[in-house]
Amino acid sequence: MLKKIFITAMVIVLSVAFYVVWDNFKGIAPLITSPEIPADELTEGLSLPQGFGIEVFTENLPGVRVMVQDSFGNFWLSRTKEGVVTLITIEDGEVVHTDDVFRNLNNPHGLAIDPQDPFNLYVAETDKVSRIRIYSEGRLEKIADLPTGGGGHFTRTLAFGPDDRLYVSIGSSCNVCEEGDSRRAKIFSMNKDGNDFREHASGLRNAVFFTWSYVDGRMWATEMGRDRLGDDLPPDEINIIEEGRNYGWPICYGKNIHDTDFDKNTYIRNPCMEPFEKASYIDLQAHSAPLGLAFIPEEGWPEEYWYDLLVAYHGSWNRSVPTGYKIVRLELDAEGNYSGTEDFITGWFKDGEVSGRPVDILIQPGGVAYITDDYAGVIYRLFRTEEI
Fold first, then answer.
1. Which of 242, 264, 292, 344 is the most exposed place for a label (fewest CB within 10 A)?
2. What gap in Å lies between CA 382 and CA 121, rounded to an integer?
């Protein structure tokens, strides 16, 4: 009798577990079943605005994530899962050599070149920030320790701000929790030598990428919302990051919505409101996984695109109906006022199959942009055509 009860209980437990897993993660199926596509066919199914074209700039770069371009026009790339930083040498606009310069790194992600000294390259691994004099015999020199362990988000992103300080984003250690390490779910800044490491903003679950507006110098960041609240909650976000502000995670999301699924406490005042927590600036479709973002300059781009923001949606992995896998254009005016979102490049998800997942965007004058794709292992080159 006890054996039958035990078997029945196990069947119930396994059935519930299967339902929960399938309900939350069935959207990952396309990432598992999608076939490999030759690089010369990757762009065939992509849709772009009239007047633009796209091509595979270079391939055979599994896991390529962040890219920066040095003063010689060469590209430095982080390939996080491969544990390497790769140098792409360019001559006359074409790739002539690919070299994994730094190997055996701990999930390298963020890269930054000192704007005042373009031979200093900074590399962010999960547990540290290092710098090196490129095109020299030097070695990576650690300048700052970063938190590791605890699972969760392990990418660290770097960029120099208009104030000449180096900024680094550190994601949470979990989906939603109260952090034990005060450095998690925040953005910090530091001097170029790693000194004066100080908190810039908090309450950011996973602000993987950030940049600054070339018009007013404000810092903008993409932010991934938590999982397990269904297909459409909470929204992913675009935030304008202000020093000293709290952006709500883990108890608030979006336009200062209280996450009562996690936070069961009772408050005298609403915990999700100004001036205590800063609301999102733009709400995005939940589980789109926004990553790279870049402002469109005036030089060489159509006037209707000036000041707009391109954002890479890496694509969902835990949504019943997959979403993302595209690049969108956020329509902004010169003051950063938002008026709408429209698709800019689509086609990486079609007929239930994934062919690519855009990550980083590097926009240049002249209507040119480069886009990394860690799923296809390529870099795309976007360009203007003569139709404009």
1. 264
2. 26
* 3-class secondary-structure state, position 264: coil
Whether 9 is in a domain gets the answer no
The answer to whether residue 148 is domain-embedded is: yes
Residue-level pLDDT at 30 = 56
Question: Within a domain: residue 200?
Answer: yes
Listed in sequence order, the residues at least 6 apart from 17 whose beta carbon sits closer than 8 Å to its beta carbon are none
Q: Identify the domain containing residue 343 by its residue range.
A: 34-384
Residue 25 DSSP SS3: helix
Global model pTM greater than 0.85: yes
Q: Which residue has the tokens 């009798």?
A: 1
CA distance linking residue 204 with residue 245, whole number of Å? 10
- Number of structural domains, the chain? 1
Chain segment 196-232, per-residue pLDDT in tens: 999 999 999 999 999 999 999 999 999 999 999 999 9
CATH of the domain at 73: 2.120.10.30
Give the angle subtended at the CA of 188 by the CAs of 372 and 325, to the nearest 5°. Answer: 25
Give a yes or no: residue 14 inside a domain.
no
Q: Is 326 helix (H, G, I), strand (E, B) or coil?
A: strand
Burial environment of residue 326 by CB neighbours within 10 A (0 to 12, 13 to 18, 19 or more): buried
Rounded to whole angstroms, the Cα distance separating 268 from 274 reads 15
CA atoms within 13 Å, Cβ hemisphere of 274: 4
Q: Which helix (H) or strand (E) holds 54?
A: strand 52-58
